[in-house]
Every structure is written in structure tokens, then in C-alpha cells.
Design goal:
This protein is α/β, with parallel strands linked by helices. The protein has twelve helices and twelve strands. It has a six-stranded mixed beta sheet with strand order 2-1-3-8-7-6, sandwiched between helices. Helix 5 (about 80-90) packs parallel to helix 10 (about 225-240) and helix 6 (about 105-115) crosses helix 7 (about 135-140). It holds the Pfam family MoCF_biosynth.
């Protein structure tokens, strides 16, 4: 069977798009002299996870195109979902970036993020069309080649169906449609890493793998429902690597105060300095047009945060609430700042 697949690949071997060959980095790679690979640090896939970053890839997101369907990734909903995901697990999300479908941009961003953060997720650019260049760009970033992932291909055949407007499509017959589908199962391959660590199949009813590159870069599709589903099913694999393996997450305490920000600023500045060694961040947020503002404590040390509640309530002349608007009067139109 896989001999047939290899024959298909040879038949439809395709050059990269012209715009993927214009950079100096690409030229060097064509001579097997990748400036990116020479400085790459190798990250262990078993490394504890403290920090995270999210890279949203797609011209359509930057172009502000309106969403016309539930699954259309033209408005970024994936980074907010990922932010909530990290918060729930106690992972510090340190950076979110949105970049174009541009090889140089992807290479620079993914290498920088992989070097700086423990858990990196990319979203978008792994479809069947000419501008889906995420796999090939991330492969180049770490001096790797693309390789047909046989299990992903078998799962694709088993779990996906040809479009109704492709009545003559056949998995065993070379065609442009088949070549396009194969793009989605040709992932970066590192000969120095175990195969099972480079493609994670976390949902039995989904053929899309989470490709893992350099130990910490996780390549996910941009379609929100698939992005979210794969992340949710990835959670059990992440829990043993978290600072809090029970997955209790980060706590956020809200305090409603009638005082303007300028009145609480001196106290909050002092509190922030005092709370920093405990990993607790202090925030202050105006609520324009409302009579009450919000002060927040965010951190993982619940016992310490609990100990601060009486003090904060007294100093801001307010109280801890579950919702920002909990203490708002029925008619609240005055500006709060």
C-alpha cells in the first residue's frame, strides 16, 4: 500500500511556491546550509511547562475579513480560546502574535518562540492550497524535511470523505485533488526524534495530527472547532509536565471598588511589589461610564491570595465579587474615572 503512496508522491512531487524561494534563508537551505538550523536549540518534549506562546498564521486574519461561516478562521477566536486554556491549566501565556502567510515571518517567529517559551502553539496555514505554507516553513526553520506521515494518511482516508463535487476522486489514482490532500499529511520530520513524539493523534474521530517540532512547537489547524477539540484532547498529555499537575490552574480574584484608579494607585503599587515574590499580579481596570471600578489579584498561590482579601477590601473600600457588575446600581451612567 505504502509503495503505492510513494509512487503517488513521486508522480505529484511539486516545487515550493515561487514566493517560498525568495529569501536568503531559502537559498541557503537549497544548498543544505540553513542559517536557521545552525543556531537551533533542541527542546526536550518532556520539559516542564511554565510558559506558552501562540502564533496565529493567516493573511485573512490580518486583512480583517468578516467571518461568513462558523468554521471560517477569518476572525481570530483561537488565541482567546488558547488564553483561557492556559489560564485553566496554570500556564503563563506570555505572547500572542498574528502574522501573514509569509515564509520568512513564520520562520523568524516560530524559532524565537521555541527558544523562549516551553509550550508553543501555531494556528492556521496547514490546508491543501498554495498559500498553506506553515508545515514547509516550520520545517525550514529547524532544518527539517517534509515527510508523508503514513498513519495520518491512513486516518485521512478512513475518516474523511471526498467533497460531493469531486465524484471521480479516488485515493489510489494520481490526481491534482489527491496531491492537494497529501499536502495536509506531509509534516516536518526529525530523524533524531521518536516518530510517536512528532505527530500526536489525540482524538480518535479526527485524522488531523498535532505535529510537534523541536519538542515544543505544536502545529494546529486554524479551523476553530478543530483547533479547540485538539487542544482539549491534548490536555492529559500536558498535565504531567505542569507546575501544578492536578491542573488547578490560575486564580483570578475580582474586587469591586467605588474609588477612582488614581485613589487606589499608591496602595496597589505597594501591594504589587509585595505580592510579586508569591507570583501574584495586581491589576486595576476602569469601567467607563460606571460608578465602580475593578481591582484584580491573579496567581496560583491561593492561600496567599486568600490572606489578602480582608486587606484589599478595606484599602479599596470595596469587596470581593464574582462578576465585575455585581455591585453596580440599577442605574449606572456616571463615568468612573
Amino acid at each position: 500500500m505504502f509503495g503505492r503512496v510513494n509512487q503517488l508522491l513521486r508522480h505529484f512531487s511539486r516545487p515550493l511556491p515561487n514566493y517560498a524561494h525568495t529569501s536568503a534563508a531559502s537559498s541557503a537551505l537549497s544548498r543544505n546550509q540553513s542559517p536557521y538550523a545552525m543556531t537551533s536549540s533542541v527542546v526536550s518534549i518532556k520539559k516542564p511547562i511554565h510558559t506558552a506562546a501562540c502564533l496565529i498564521i493567516g493573511d485573512e486574519v490580518l486583512g480583517g475579513k468578516a467571518t461568513i461561516a462558523t468554521d471560517a478562521p477569518t476572525v481570530d477566536t483561537n488565541s482567546p480560546y488558547f488564553a483561557r486554556y492556559c489560564f485553566s491549566l496554570g500556564i503563563q501565556l506570555k505572547r500572542v502574535e498574528v502574522i501573514a502567510d509569509d515564509e520568512d515571518e513564520i520562520i523568524e517567529a516560530v524559532r524565537r518562540m521555541s527558544d523562549r517559551y516551553d509550550f508553543v502553539v501555531t494556528s492556521g496555514g496547514i490546508g491543501p492550497t498554495h498559500d498553506d505554507i506553515t508545515y514547509q516553513s516550520i520545517a525550514k526553520a529547524f532544518g527539517l524535511k517534509l515527510k508523508l506521515h503514513k498513519e495520518a494518511f491512513e486516518r485521512m482516508k478512513r475518516l474523511s470523505k471526498p467533497h460531493p463535487l469531486q465524484p471521480n476522486f479516488d485515493w489510489d489514482t494520481p490526481s491534482p485533488d489527491l496531491a492537494a490532500k497529501l499536502r495536509m499529511v506531509e509534516i516536518p520530520h526529525d530523524e533524531n526524534r521518536p516518530e510517536q513524539d512528532q505527530a500526536l493523534f489525540v482524538a480518535e474521530d479526527t485524522w488531523v495530527p498535532i505535529a510537534v517540532v523541536n519538542g515544543n512547537v505544536h502545529i494546529l489547524p486554524g479551523v476553530p472547532r478543530i483547533f479547540e477539540r485538539l487542544l482539549d484532547h491534548l490536555k492529559p498529555l500536558l498535565l504531567p509536565r505542569l507546575t501544578d499537575p492536578e491542573g488547578k490552574g490560575i486564580y483570578r480574584y475580582l474586587f469591586s471598588t467605588p474609588l477612582p484608579e488614581s485613589a487606589v494607585a499608591p496602595y496597589l503599587t505597594e501591594l504589587a511589589t509585595r505580592a510579586l515574590p508569591y507570583g501574584v499580579k495586581v491589576g486595576s481596570y476602569p469601567r467607563w461610564g460606571k460608578k465602580r471600578n475593578t481591582v484584580t489579584l491573579v496567581g496560583t498561590d491561593k492561600a496567599y491570595m486568600d490572606s489578602l482579601i480582608p486587606e484589599v477590601e478595606e484599602r479599596v473600600k470595596g469587596r470581593k465579587v464574582d462578576r465585575e457588575d455585581e455591585d453596580d446600581p440599577p442605574s449606572d451612567t456616571e463615568e468612573s474615572k
